[in-house]
Amino acid sequence: MHIPPIPSLTAADPQLAGLVEAEAQRQHDKLRMIASENYVSAAVLEASGTVLTNKYSEGYAGRRYYEGQQLIDQIETLAIERAKALFGVDHANVQPYSGSPANLAVYLAFLSPGDTVLGMSLPMGGHLTHGWSVSATGKWFNSVRYGVSRETGRIDLDEVRDVARRERPKVIFCGGTAVPRTIDFAGFAEIAREVGAVLVADIAHIAGLVAGGAHPSPVGHADVVTTTTHKTLRGPRGAMILSTAEHASAIDKAVFPGLQGGPHNHTTAGIAVALREASGPDFRAYAAQIVANAKALAAALVERGYDLVSGGTDNHLILADLTGQGIGGKPAAQALDRAGIELNYNTVPYDPRKPFDPSGIRLGTAALTTRGLTEEQMPQVAAWMDEAIGAAVKDDESTIERIAGEVRDLLAGYPMPGYATA
């Protein structure tokens, strides 16, 4: 049963309510290892589903274009102050609807169409909005890119420096969507200073690890930090932009009125709750456990012969090349999903296959850590993955079904926020 219960929705729209209940059970019954997903607390769920969704609030606290903001201003200010305290920054904007609009606001704040931006190549682990060709950021700006070493699978800062010196970008992005190793924010900052660029750290994937002290912080190195508020931070689907005081006005003007109208106040409330949760000692232990689980799972996969990009992980994320297993990432991910193990197919660096049918899979440990799993269970998770992938190669659906049942049996002992067994 979904928690909080949804009796009004059930009465008004039983078809939709049934889908919601089914999704809650699906999330309960599967090992959810999509690296960008997690479970939010019941408190975040409640805050995100309140009457705050009724209110329009264009502008900022004390400077709105609608009346009736006395309480909304307090809620947004609460989220801002908690973000500033948690990450140790001068300024926080909590209004971006998601990570991509947050990054677009950076372009609007610091660049004009045609200006040069340096970001990590998407197939190497970067993000669409770091200047990839199919994104508006690659179409409207002069996008130049860096990658990773063929030998190590890691970012080569010498390459980044060479490209930056040659191209003289106005903005440099560091961070990405498939970067399993610690990001050298200080090294990127040195390069940005040398060429006179604004350094933007996109920590969407690792924000919770940064907040919990399990990954170095970009604060003090990057001029601007963008992040989603879900993933490892365990908040609702939203985003924030953190910056020095120098850039506060440019960022705020870029978000509103530059890109957006009224913020989603119910999401802002959920962000405020998540930030409060992330400020406590339990969250620090959680962040450390995410990394411990990822390292244990990576070691177990390597022991079973899997080729991991960069050889392992320093954070929550693992990127595996399945060429040696004789299967593409897409059919493997689909078989694993049927086996109760949810992750995504993903391009690996220098992948010879097409993006929609790549060689790799990407997985993360944030959600299963929320459920309470520890290093003790990681060898079993690796064994299930290996067995399911082998079964997919052999078209052995009965083995895949058996694994799904074993996964459900394991997870029955680990409560899920947002769901209760009847």
From TrEMBL:
The record marks 230 as: Plays an important role in substrate specificity. It is found in: Cytoplasm. The modification N6-(pyridoxal phosphate)lysine is found at residue 231. (6S)-5,6,7,8-tetrahydrofolate binds at residues 122, 126-128, 246. GO terms for molecular function: glycine hydroxymethyltransferase activity. Residues 10-385 form the Serine hydroxymethyltransferase-like domain. It is an enzyme of class 2 (transferase). PROSITE patterns: SHMT (PS00096). Its EC number is 2.1.2.1. Pfam families: SHMT. Pathway: Amino-acid biosynthesis; glycine biosynthesis; glycine from L-serine: step 1/1; One-carbon metabolism; tetrahydrofolate interconversion. Its cofactor is pyridoxal 5'-phosphate. It catalyses: (6R)-5,10-methylene-5,6,7,8-tetrahydrofolate + glycine + H2O = (6S)-5,6,7,8-tetrahydrofolate + L-serine. CDD domains: SHMT (cd00378). Keywords: Amino-acid biosynthesis, Cytoplasm, One-carbon metabolism, Pyridoxal phosphate, Transferase. PANTHER family: SERINE HYDROXYMETHYLTRANSFERASE (PTHR11680). Catalyzes the reversible interconversion of serine and glycine with tetrahydrofolate (THF) serving as the one-carbon carrier. This reaction serves as the major source of one-carbon groups required for the biosynthesis of purines, thymidylate, methionine, and other important biomolecules. Also exhibits THF-independent aldolase activity toward beta-hydroxyamino acids, producing glycine and aldehydes, via a retro-aldol mechanism. HAMAP family: SHMT (MF_00051). Belongs to the SHMT family. Homodimer. This is Serine hydroxymethyltransferase. The gene is glyA.
